[in-house]
Write a structure and sequence with these properties.
binds fe (ii) ion; 344 residues; 2 domains; Naphthalene 1,2-dioxygenase Alpha Subunit, Chain A, domain 1; binds FE2/S2 (inorganic) cluster
Length: 344
Amino acid sequence: MFVRNAWYVAAWDHEIGRDMRRRILLNEPVVLYRREDGKPAALEDRCCHRQAPLSMGKLKGDIVECPYHGLQFDPSGACVRVPSQERIPPSAKVRSYPVIEKNHWIWIWLGEPAQADPALIEDFHWMDDPGWGFGGSYLHVEANYLLLVENLLDTTHLPFLHPGTLGTDAFAKSEFEVTREGDRIKVARWLMDKPPAPFHKQMGGFPDGMNVDRWQIAHFGPPSFVKLDVGSAPAGAGARQGDRSKGMNMWNLNAITPETEKTAHYFYAQAYNFKLDQRWISDLVKAQVTRAFLEDMAMIKAQQINMDLGPVPVVNLGQDKAWVAMRQIVARLVSEETGQAKAA
Ligand code: FES
Ligand SMILES: [Fe+2]
């Protein structure tokens, strides 16, 4: 079960052009393309005649032609031509979804179209802010999407799963504070006056022997967004009190879209506010992050395989507080939506 009345990321902007791209989102087949005016469009990728994928057909102007018997659909999903007859049956249509291009992502609303308020799109402004650069990518996830959200809210796995990439034993064992505001969760972790992590030292240009105050503050927004505010500043320079100006800051930006109950689409980027004149940094931060994420992908895939063997009792620990709350929030939103649908 998924939260349907929410904006999800369907694609990177550069993935969608004047050809048709099929993607399964929340168990629905969707075809994405750009209209002649450049605006993105999304239709159900399942012809109302015999369920052929429209994405295998032709894009003629703004019209999509089914590859099987040539029915044509406009961007609203209405059938505008049936080659074999004059009459177009009123029920001949496919679903059309609200889509918006924002912050380099194509956002889609698969729920009730009347509720698709653009103001509800999660904030990822860093990817359009001249004060920031970013490197971003996509991974296909072979596990339920919440296993990935859980993984991103959990830093206690770092020394075990990522000893060679994020190997931050002391950091991962440091105290953290979980706070909640409505359906948003914040997990804040500070490590004060310690030598910088190698990647932070290199990127921040901290001189040998200088200690730093380091932070990692995870922000969860429903249904499946996690933004990690991470960085280091010279020890005692006031970063924890709010002055980040002397440090290096990165935002790790994550949008996870369910594909099926057991697979997901993972869109992520790493934004940074240093060395903006050096474009190679984008590739470096992307490569560093991707390397660690591939270790996570292997783990959550392995968890999913075990989970598929059947339910067993599991133990929750004190360290799991944030993602236990996250799962409660998502479950509540799903049940509220299901309740509304039943009442309607
Ligand atoms: S299946 Fe699309 S026209 Fe027949
Ligand atoms: Fe990880």
